[in-house]
Amino acid sequence: FLILASLVPLHLLQMQTGFDTVATYALLALALGYALSLERRMHAPERILSKQASVVAGVALALLVLISLKVAFLDEYTSIEAVFRTLHAKTASEQVTAIEASLARQGSFESLRMSYSSFLKGSLVAYAQSPTKATADSILARAHLYEGYFQKLLAAQPHDYRAHVNYAYLLLVMTGLGEDRVVDAKELITASYALSPGHPISLVLDSIAELYRGNIAKADQLMEAAMTINPDVAFTKEAAAYLARQKQQFPTISIVKIENL
Prior knowledge:
The chain is mainly α. It is built from eleven helices and no strands.
C-alpha cells in the first residue's frame, strides 16, 4: 500500500521538476510485481518459495524501494534546494558551491537546464539594475562553470537537441555580456539543424547570432522563416518583436531573454 500511495505524489513531483521518471517506473514495476505475487498466492496457496528465500526476496524488495525513494525524493530535493541557493547566495564562493550541488546528478539535462536558466534569470535582472563591467564579469565567471557542464553533457549525449540550443543560448547571453562567443554558438545551432530540421528555436537563435554579427538581412530572413513555421506561438512572436527593437537601436544590442528552451 505504501508503494502504491507514493506513486502519484512521486510522479507529480518529478513532472514539476526534472522529468526524471525512472524511479517512478521502477516503483510501479515493484508494485505490479508484488500484486502479481499476491494473485499467485491466492490461486496457489501452497508455499512457492521457502521461508528463507521469502525473507531474502523481501529484503531485496525493501532495498530497491529505498534506493528508488532516494533517487526520486532525496536527490531531487537536494538538487532543487541547491538551485534556490544559487539565487540567494551572499558570496561568489557560496554561489559556485550551490551551482555545483545543483548539478551533482551527472548526465541530467533537466537538472542542468533548471539550474542554469534560474541562474541566468536572476543574473540578467541584476545586470539590468547595474549594467557595469564588474557585474558582467561576475556573471560570466559563473556562466563558464555552466559551460563546462554543457560540454560534458554533450560529450555523453551528442544527439540531445535541447542541450544544443540551451548551450547556444548561454553563449549568446555571454556575447551580450561582452565575451564574443558567436562563432561557438553558430556551431551548436548548425548542429541543432541536423538534429531537428526546421525547428523554430534553431532559427530564432540563428537569427540572434546573425544580429550579433551585424548581418541584419540574414537575421531578418531567419526570423521570417521561424514565423512562417509557428506564426501564432508566443515564443516566435516575442522573438520577432525583440529583433524589431534591436534593428531600431543597432549597433547597440540588448540581451535576449528566453525561458524554458
